[in-house]
Write a structure and sequence with these properties.
The chain has helices spanning 22-34, 126-139, 157-160, and strands at 39-41, 51-56, 68-80, 85-90, 98-105, 107-113, 119-125, 154-156. By secondary structure, the chain is of the alpha+beta class. Bound molecules: nickel (II) ion.
């Protein structure tokens, strides 16, 4: 947090030209795994492109969360399917050691392409929807603390969640 690259709108990937994102995606999954992240966006490793990865079977940082399929999403688009939001605790590898309570749409449809150029089109809710909204925010230069409704609900992980 604080790096101007994280506050910039990331550039779309040119799908028509064909693309080789293999090394970027490998770096992203390595970074995510090393820190037990639920997801990661390319700007978080210094690459201002519209690429996110996410997914896990279970995650020690989010013990209550159900599994989310391992996904690469290029040029994602999100459409909220409800006006209803719900608040949930989030962390971010770019804001280490902190957690905040963030409102997100409960149900969304998201679309994009995977690393092979295949289309992805899913309707999801709950933690899956939260992760996608969080990661896609990174592509628009938004970090989760900017979305916390009440900053009393922002603090150190070890204070808020000493059991983790
Ligand atoms: Ni993040």
């Amino acid at each position: 947090m604080g790096d101007p690259l994280l506050y910039r709108r990331a550039e779309p990937v040119d799908i028509s030209a064909g693309f080789d994102l293999d090394s970027l995606i490998e770096d992203m999954f390595d970074t995510m795994a090393a820190r037990n992240g639920a997801g990661l966006a390319a700007p978080q490793i210094g690459v201002s492109k519209r690429v996110v990865v996410f997914g896990f079977q279970s995650n020690p940082r989010y013990p209550e969360a159900g599994s989310v399929p391992t996904t690469v999403l290029v040029n994602p688009e999100i459409e909220p399917l409800t006006d209803r939001t719900e608040e949930g605790w989030e962390g971010c590898l770019s804001v280490p050691g902190m957690r905040g309570l963030v409102p997100r749409y409960r149900q969304i449809r998201y679309r994009g392409h995977d690393q092979k150029g295949e289309r992805i089109d899913r309707t999801v809710d709950g933690f899956h929807a939260r992760v996608v909204q969080h990661e896609c925010d990174h592509l628009d230069g938004i970090l989760y603390p900017m979305r916390i409704a009440d900053l009393h609900n922002f603090g150190y992980e070890e204070v808020l969640f000493p059991q983790l």
